[in-house]
Amino acid sequence: MKNSIKIIQPDDWHVHFREGEMLNVVTKYSSRVNRRCIAMPNTSTPITNSIEAINYKNLIQKNSGKNNFEALIPCYLTDNLDIDDFEYALHNNIFIGGKLYPNNATTNSQYGVNDIKKIYNIFEILEKQNKTLLIHGELNRSDIDIFDREKYFIDEELYQIRKSFKDLKIVLEHVSSDYGVDFVKTNINIAGTITPHHMLLTKEDVFKDEEINPHHYCMPVVKNEKDLTSLRNAACFNNSKFFLGTDSAPHHVVDKKQNDSLKAGIFSSSNSIELYASIFEEENALENLEKFSSINGPKFYNLDVNDQYLILDKEDKIVPEYTEEGNIKIKNFYANKKIHWKVAQLEV
Hints:
Elements: E1 4-8, E2 12-15, H1 20-31, E3 36-39, H2 50-64, E4 70-72, E5 74-76, H3 83-91, E6 97-100, H4 120-128, E7 132-135, H5 149-164, E8 169-172, H6 178-186, E9 190-194, E10 207-208, E11 211-212, H7 225-236, E12 242-244, H8 253-257, H9 272-282, H10 289-300, E13 309-318, E14 322-325, E15 328-331, E16 338-347
Parallel strand pairs: 2-3, 3-4, 5-6, 6-7, 7-8, 8-9, 9-12
Antiparallel strand pairs: 1-13, 10-11, 13-16, 14-15
Helix pairs in contact: 1-2
């Protein structure tokens, strides 16, 4: 049994930093272990141009308090982008890629795309510049069950995108189903991020006795045991095409998680790498954690692997119930439960 593990410093390829006081509080948790994080652009006013991206990047990095921490920003794709500015921002690495939110699929996606074919010109630009299309892969329609939204998006949209743009690099974010895992594994130029909560929860943890556990409610929703097992296998064993993306998405406990305006989102940044380490240990796959957390992501995004190392010690820890600071109170994922690893130090 290992009492300590040393891995290349990880990155988190999917984080919601939010805005205002919330951003001030949560940024330090993502930057405590990660060298880079992709900051989702679905802020209250979506980030759709180079100036907004530069300002948001600088704000996050300032609040991290770390000189070597980097926020990477994708453009929130709409069908009325300033194309010249978009191309300029991609060419100058202001945008790491483009983020596709189907309309009303998740938080602040009301500005998203109704007809994806209307932005095929944007996909052409991404493909030409060898930049990445990041996708929230769900179709939100009245005739589609909430548990089938990922499958329908793959069948009705993603297959066509893949067929039309064979050289376009695509990340199917927060893969949540066995069907999604299979799609990523069997198609070229596509990768997937996997969250800790999709490897720890099933729908019984969210929907029970006609009640919703608001702190386990996320989009895409967690699904069946079969899907959880498939995601664990993909991350821990067949993981050359999968990498770490927490989709850590904080909401205020009082006004967003305990009333009729329930918001989807789970906050895991406070214990992210520790949760992943515990999962990999349960699967007897600790030797594969570094590849998943620190190598596959940079390789797919054509970035250098980090040059520092992270040491984790085997030590039981109870996850605190809340993250609280000032006016902010957030329920921590896995609150009051035991995890078995603790970050010891960063090492050059």
